Amino acid sequence: MAIYTKEQAQALLKKVLSYSKADECEASLGGGDEGNVRYALNAVSTAGDVSSISLSVTSVYGKKAGSASINEFDDAALERVVRRSEELAQFAPENSEYMPMLGQSEFKEAITYNANTAAMTPDSRAEMVGKSLAITKEAKLSAAGFLDNSTSFSAVMNSKGLFAYNKSTDVYFSVTTRNDAGTTSGYAARGFTDVSKLDTASATRVATMKANASIGAKAIEPGKYTVILEPVAATYMLENMFRFDARSAEEGRSFLSKKGGGTRLGEQLMDPKVTIYSDPFNPDLPGPTWGGDGLPREKTMWIDKGVVKNLSYSRFWAQKKGVAPLPGPSNIIMEGGDATLEDLIKSTERGILVSRLWYIRMVDPQSLLLTGLTRDGTFYIENGKIKFPVKNFRFNESPVIMLNNLEALGKQERSISVESYRSYLIPPMKIRDFTFSSLSDAV
Amino acid sequence: MRRRDFIYLTGLGAAATALPNLSAFGKSIDVQDALNPVDAKIKKELSDAGLNAARSAGATYADVRIGRYLNQFVITRENRVLNVANTESYGVGIRVIANGCWGFAATNDVTKDGIAKTAKRAVAVAKANAKLGSAPVQLAPQKGYGEVSWKTPIEKNTFEVPIKEKVDLLLGANAIAMGSGANFVNSTIFAVNEQKYFASTDGSYIDQDIHRLFPSFTVTKIDPTKGSFETRSALSSPVGMGYEYLNPLASETVGGITPRYKNRYDMLEDIKFATKQAGEKLTAKSVDPGKYDLVLDPSHLWLTIHESVGHPTELDRVLGYEANYAGTSFLTLDKWKAGNFKFGSDKVNVVGDKLQVGSLGAVGYDDEGVGTKKWDIIKNGVLVNYQAIRDQAHIIGLKESQGCCYAQSWQDVQFQRMPNVSLQPGTAKLSVDEMIKNVEKGVYIIGNGSFSIDQQRYNFQFGGQLFYEIKEGKIVGMLNDVAYQANTQEFWNSCTQVCDESDYRLGGSFNDGKGQPGQSSAVSHGSSTTRFNGVNVINTKRKIG
């Protein structure tokens, strides 16, 4: 087990700092155990089990900083890593933006650790994958999936008296179900802190249902459509926007920059139904309560009823601008409504239901124009009902424009980005005038 | 918490996440230590401990990879150095077949005892999953090479060049940009050294020393009155070379509308042009959407080759092993078996190549101990082969692997990764000027930009760095807001001309992502300037708020 308790971490870091001769010194310790199973064509393809732990030390003389790290922990090794960081600091050029380390703060205990997830083994992973495979075999579909669990810890201590510790667990599952002819595909993804909330069978049933419903997809003309984005689709699209950084906005190179200079702080940038905030204590999406900058992470509003409420300020930029530092989002929660996905479909005269988006890339950072494609379940809606599956589209759309064209929100749920594997609380959403620019033959 | 979050929270931040192959748990060491590889004799003894433990636990095959992965990065903006770091990640990954199923385990406890325990863990993982039942793994035969070694042919080890020299180069480049009117500039040098030792129950003990380098920059210019900004990134390439790449040579520079580079790069020259061009982009004409003939420079075309030829010919995708993440491929086995599937026009000849000197993919042996080679993938426009590893070779009737196995570090399992996939130059003499002379209505694109392609590699969209309008055989000015969309097969069948080998250059990616858990690999793609007729160009300008 590569997991240190708070007391073990504290004792080791204290010893490390006792070797320091620099003006300032910070030591951080992190590690974890990770296990995974990957399967395809209804059989396991690769599986692994990895343990790792490392100590990193930063020494500072004036405004010159150097870092070194090591993964050996005898006394000689601990002293060696401190000396290396001191040598690198002496060689380093002065950083005019260096900020002195912070002293002790009160950090609340995070709720990011779950014992059920930490207790997972190769056999329990195999059993959970077996449940998924049983569903797809019965449905005569071919499954490709991935189950990954990790338990990790991180701790930091510095010569100014700061100490912080956190321990967390995560489990991630996703599955794609396809028929042998390759003419249909369905998908589901789930991510939790507590593995007891993960039902691989029910997630696989959702994927098989999408695959079965997608047979015989028809091509319809690309153009502007009302779309309903399921949470896994909306999450991937919106995560490209969740960087509310003051500096780049004030420097004039962000979607939050204002014409003529300054930022869009305080402006109504989106529909009033849009409220986005961070909260490390949300039980459905717990986050760390401190960051590498030594600052606590608290509940922070970013977009309140469509208005830009806060921008994040690094400690250097805050000092330069004479404001309080504000760390960036530790997690992202978007408020939803009461409607179910079915309600959103029922209220749609003509539109497209999008299950998942794929290969999203920035086209223009100024307008946040993104391009990407639909995948694994795209359906035409008419008069409140799903009429037929449609072929996939490429879109060119900005999440900012999209959240101005917001018609309705459904119930918020924990969803995971298919690219970054980060979790978010995001509702399904109905958007008008979403721009599909071409058709794709991909299934 | 995931690795990416750990990096974020510990403040390694952008620098670490931008660096491929950097383990979050890597240890930083000084340059001297990095230059002393672990003795091959010691690695052989350690490997044998792993192979023996795996066999005793019931493995029918095992390989042990002892890896020391060194990275150095120097990151600057304007007149400041943001970060200088050396990192090292040292550990061992063990892959086994037990009860017909793969298992993998890894540890940073590089002792005989730690390795033996890890080998047993790998066997336990294989046995747990074998219970789920599947066809047993079938490995293509591979003879043991005994004790052999290979090293990237470098002239100057980047890790031996003093930090000051690198800082001076980057800050010198930044000063040129800021002095010529840039508002912001970021510049970086990334260097990678993989010291990896591979041993297998087939009887191979392979010691390799791999070097890669990637210098780059981005210049930003702002027009505050319009609230707009433009960037121009470097036209450098990541290379499988030493620091010699950064010593400019006039004979390695290609002239034309802006300088481009072969085996040597002139950062100070490129950034001067970049600053001027970022300014021009602010006032360039916004493109009228429609059909254009595209003239694509190798600094741009490498990415289109990567996404639309490299990925769909990966055999694991074709077979469905990547269905849950990267996707599958439209180049299904029936198209290959037919022997006449017209992937492109007869001008299109594409090779897989793990040998090319200076490329990112060049190694002596892959990460499952197979000697590397070069082979045809598209011949006169027809799909003739894929990219395969040992457990796939039999599926396409091969008697041996094509040597495409790679793991990004000791703690990741090796799997099929793309070799260098390159478009061969035209055989008839043809310069870029001659090519442009015959274009009535076209866009000349230099440098890579935005990219996106579907999960079976049919529909793609690409941007670029520089766009020039061609009218009646002449370049008439700069364009902006350009992206082109096409279907892969239609696009490559619209290829009408490829310039000769005097224009041939490599581009590449330092961090091609694939797999679950995700892994990054580095790969080059060569081409000469190439013409495609009648491609759909869209305008990407939007306004928010």
Automatic annotation (TrEMBL), chain A:
Domain of life per record: Bacteria
InterPro entries in the cross-refs: Metalloprtase-TldD/E_C, Metalloprtase-TldD/E_cen_dom, Metalloprtase-TldD/E_N, TldD/PmbA_N, TldD/PmbA_sf
Similarity comment: Belongs to the peptidase U62 family.
All residue ranges annotated as the Metalloprotease TldD/E N-terminal domain in the record: 25-89
Residue span, Metalloprotease TldD/E central domain: 114-199
Entry-linked Gene3D superfamilies: PmbA/TldD superfamily
Record organism: Mucilaginibacter pankratovii
Protein's name in the database: TldD/PmbA family protein
Residue span, Metalloprotease TldD/E C-terminal domain: 222-437
From TrEMBL, chain B:
Domain of life, source organism: Bacteria
Keyword Magnesium: no
Family annotation (Pfam families): PmbA_TldD_1st (PF01523), PmbA_TldD_3rd (PF19289)
SUPFAM superfamilies linked to this entry: Putative modulator of DNA gyrase, PmbA/TldD
Compositional bias (Polar residues): 517-532
Every Metalloprotease TldD/E N-terminal domain range: 62-126
Keywords of this entry: Hydrolase, Metalloprotease, Protease
Protein's UniProt keywords contain Disulfide bond: no
Stretches assigned to coiled coil: none
Chain ranges of the Metalloprotease TldD/E C-terminal domain: 289-537
Segments for region (Disordered): 509-532
InterPro entries, alphabetized: Metalloprtase-TldD/E_C, Metalloprtase-TldD/E_N, Peptidase_U62_metallo, TldD/PmbA_N, TldD/PmbA_sf
Family: Belongs to the peptidase U62 family.
This protein's name: TldD/PmbA family protein
